Amino acid sequence: MDSYPAVEDHGLIGDLQTAALISTDGTVDWFCAPRFDSPSVFGALLDRRNGGHFQLSPDGVDYTSKQLYLPGTPILITRFHSADGVGELLDFMPVTGAEATDRHRLIRLVRMVRGSMQFRFHCHPRFNYGRDAYELEVHPEGDVFRSPTMTLTLAAFKNSLREFDTRDIKRDTDGVSASFTLHAGDIGGVVLETACPHAPRALSTDEACDLLAETRDYWRRWVGGSRYKGRWREVVERSAMTLKLMTYAPTGALVAAPTAGLPEQIGGQRNWDYRYTWIRDASFSVHALLRLGFTEEAEKYLLWLDARIREARDGNLPLQIMYRIDGSPDLPEEVLGHLEGYRGSAPVRIGNG
After folding, report:
1. What DSSP element (H or E) covers 69?
2. Other beta carbons less than 10 A from residue 48's beta carbon
3. How do residues 73-125 score in pLDDT, each as one tens digit?
4. pTM of the model
5. What is the pLDDT of residues 186-241, one digit of tens each?
6. What is the distance between the terminal CA atoms of the chain, rounded to a whole angstrom?
7. Which domains does the chain have, with CATH numbers?
8. CA–CA distance, 231 with 163 (Å, rounded to integer)
9. Is 283 helix (H, G, I), strand (E, B) or coil?
10. Among candidates 233, 222, 227, 230, which has minimal Cα distance to 297?
11. Which of 24, 131, 270, 337 could serve as a FRET partner for 350 with CA atoms 20 to 30 Å apart?
12. 8 A C-beta contact, residue 212 and residue 107
């Protein structure tokens, strides 16, 4: 139970269709694909042993860590300090756009600021909330995890891990792992991709840095549209980016939270799934964005809401208090009895009845 990090010890990244939570030790504890309300690929937030995770952190050395965001962006920096040096892990997801897609990328870029440090990654996906088995396929430039419902590819940057030796990347029943050492000025990393239409292809460091710059520029342009100029500008803009991260771009609907099954009280049973759009809550969020000058987000949400009102009228039904992000009114609730829950807080619920 003590192995569970505090909920607040996580950073949030996303691509406007789904999101991931990453803890201060560099572990992806929560990631659902292809949408916010899809089954989890990494769900260690709800079960450290059986939920699945992707950890990338210093290996064989005592370290302290701190998380922060690259200013004006949701690009997450996890900074590792040890006696031998300082390294940074940058996690981000390139923005996917307004067309719904099954293809999403999570890029984990490591750069050595000072000294040297050995890192280790361990990628252990558990598809469909840990209920689906998968097969591991080995390709020249990466690996493919293939389950009945999803494929996930993993590839290292061309001039990082793969230049050490492909035999250093170990494959076992728990996934894939490798260790590598970086020195001051070095950049390495890996990219995860869902529903990749071709065999895994290793990115060059330049390609990864270009994607980082594109993601940075997108978010800085977006937040630059805020008309708030008061003394709390940094805090207000960070809050606005968080609301934007919880917006499903294809429809404009906002989820109440990107997580499911977290308890309102440790050991309690009020463990709800918040990956849906509450009419009231989303309206408050959109109102806040509108006051900051983000009119496009308000317009898309109002169009989504108008469609729900028309459907209710045409079906002679009352307007529901919540819907899926695609507008579906069906939210069947299910208990995942095979997951122990955050710090033992069972039952884990998905859906919302």
Report:
1. strand 64-69
2. 18
3. 999 999 999 999 999 999 999 999 899 999 999 999 999 999 999 999 999 99
4. 0.94
5. 999 999 999 998 888 888 899 999 999 999 999 999 999 999 999 999 999 999 99
6. 28
7. 10-223 (2.70.98.10), 233-350 (no CATH)
8. 49
9. helix
10. 222
11. 24
12. yes
Taking the C-alpha atoms of residue 343 and residue 136, their distance in angstroms, rounded to an integer, is: 30
Residues 122 and 108: beta-carbon distance below 8 Å: no
Burial 169-206 (b: 16+ CB within 10 A, else e): beeeeebbbbbbebeeebbbbbbbbbebeeebbbbebe
- Cα–Cα distances in Å, from 104 out to 26, 191, 266, 305? 20, 10, 32, 26
Please choose, from the candidates 69, 74, 63, 51, the residue with its C-alpha nearest in 3D space to the C-alpha of residue 25.
63
| pLDDT category of residue 49 using cuts at 50, 70 and 90 | very high
| Helix count and strand count (H, E) for the chain | 6, 21
The whole-angstrom separation of Cα 45 and Cα 279 is 27
Query: In the structure encoding, which two tokens stand for residue 77, read together?
Result: 């920096």
- Residue 32 CB coordination number (10 Å): 22
Please say whether the beta carbons of 81 and 68 come within 8 A: no
In sequence order, the 6+-apart residues with CB closer than 8 A to the CB of 330 are: 324
> How many CA atoms does the CB half-sphere of 157 hold within 13 Å?
22
Tokens, residue 279 = 């009419």
CA 286/CA 252 separation, integer angstroms: 10
Residue 290 to residue 285: CA distance in whole angstroms: 9
Alpha helices in the chain (DSSP H): 127-130, 161-164, 205-223, 233-245, 279-291, 295-314
